[in-house]
Amino acid sequence: MRKPDYTRRIVITGLGVVSPIGNDKDAVWEALTAGRTGIGEITRFDTTPYDHKASGEVKDFDITQYWNFKDARRTDRTVHFAVASAKMAVADSGLEITDENRYDVGVIYGSGGGGQDLFITNQASWKTKGARSVSPFFIANGLVDASSGTIAIETGAKGHNFCPVAACSTGTLAIGEAAEAIRRGDCTAVIAGAAESPLLELVHIGFTNMRGMGSPLPGQPIGTACRPFDRTRDGFVLGEGAGALILEDLELAKARGATIYAEVVGYGSAADGFDMIAPAAGGEGSARAMKAALERRDVPADEVDMINPHGTSTPVGDKAESEAIWTAFGSHTPDILISATKSMTGHMMGAAGAFEGVATALSVYHQTVPPTLNYREPDPECNLNVATETIEKPIRYALSNNIGLGGHNAAVIFKRYTGD
């Protein structure tokens, strides 16, 4: 452990991802810039009784590429995604976790709901087959912190370790808290991120009854069901996946010649303290989180060139987030390009901020803004500069923003690394 140094610079040196549009960073970046949707019809359960049939499912995923089957079969799909994303990120970073440094490598990896499927299936087994049919492994592996614990076991990282849980802001908080942990001297590198596998029939029913799910445009493909900031938006699409980022002390990253995707320069969080579902008026909690991210490292608001927003495609949520962006950025707002990647992946819940952190870091690294799909009719109540095609442009700073059930708001800011 080192002493705190709040001038310490933190960079991203590794990326790993499992998602509806690809299961590695290169596949994801190609899909994002091609504007290719990962939203399709639900295959996990029979949707005949339900009106809403769209989801962002992970495809062609094989956990045995990353983990031995004997251990993997005891746990939940959420943990599978987490382990895969973390191992990809570590490999991508080139960081070797050894006996000499393992106590300085942390894991801050979260989930919104954890292994819900394990609880559902074990309860069903108990009811139909009796108590002896319940797995002795389901409690430990169904906990929300199962991912952070398993990642430590699988990678050998024995430093600072915890599992943030903040609904849809979980992944964003994990990134921000990882940066602060390194500045505090708790560790020199962190595996940060989040995973979620919520495509379960009970969860689908719950969100449907909440009246939060979106439908495709009449006569249009199912991929049009998610339309962030569009005037016709009517709800979100549930997705699944994971994102992992290696955050590292800049000087140590430079010393080992690591690839640097971006610098993490801002982080803010704030609570609405208002309602478990509805956002506060004007998105005031989200605005405070974004302002805090700007102020933490004195990021000039007028140099933020892109935002990857929460952008879930709900009528109330997108309007409130738009108002929050205007509050945080004022007259500079029309100059900021909005890249709402949930239009391609659906809403990955707790993993959303982690996936979008990966996407935003890649945008900064490649100096390219991916498009927002299905944006056809601008909504005057949102009034944002939504990118509808892939745009190559200078990106000095980019912000990733998320808003979670319970009024949890978080934002992180990435800066282009130029080698100075």
Summarize the structure.
Helix content is 33%, strand content 19%. It is an alpha/beta fold.
Give the helix/strand layout.
Elements: E1 10-18, H1 25-34, E2 39-41, E3 54-56, H2 69-72, H3 77-93, E4 105-110, H4 116-129, H5 138-142, H6 146-155, E5 161-162, H7 170-184, E6 189-196, H8 201-209, E7 241-249, H9 250-255, E8 262-271, H10 284-296, E9 304-308, H11 315-329, E10 337-338, H12 342-345, H13 352-366, E11 368-369, E12 385-386, E13 391-392, E14 397-404, E15 408-415
Parallel strand pairs: 4-5, 4-6, 9-10, 9-14, 10-12
Antiparallel strand pairs: 1-7, 1-8, 2-3, 6-7, 8-15, 11-13, 14-15
Helix pairs in contact: 3-6, 7-13, 10-11
Structural write-up:
By secondary structure, the protein is α/β, with parallel strands linked by helices. The chain has two domains: 246 residues, Peroxisomal Thiolase, Chain A, domain 1; 149 residues, 3-Layer(aba) Sandwich (Peroxisomal Thiolase, Chain A, domain 1), CATH 3.40.47.10. It is built from 13 helices and 15 strands. The strands form three sheets. Strands 5-4-6-7-1-8-15-14-9-10-12 form an eleven-stranded mixed beta sheet, with helices on both faces. Strands 2-3 form a two-stranded antiparallel sheet. Strands 11-13 form a two-stranded antiparallel ribbon. A hairpin with a 3-residue loop joins strand 14 and strand 15. Helix 3 crosses helix 6, helix 7 crosses helix 13 and helix 10 packs parallel to helix 11. It is globular and about 60 Å long. The mean pLDDT is 96.
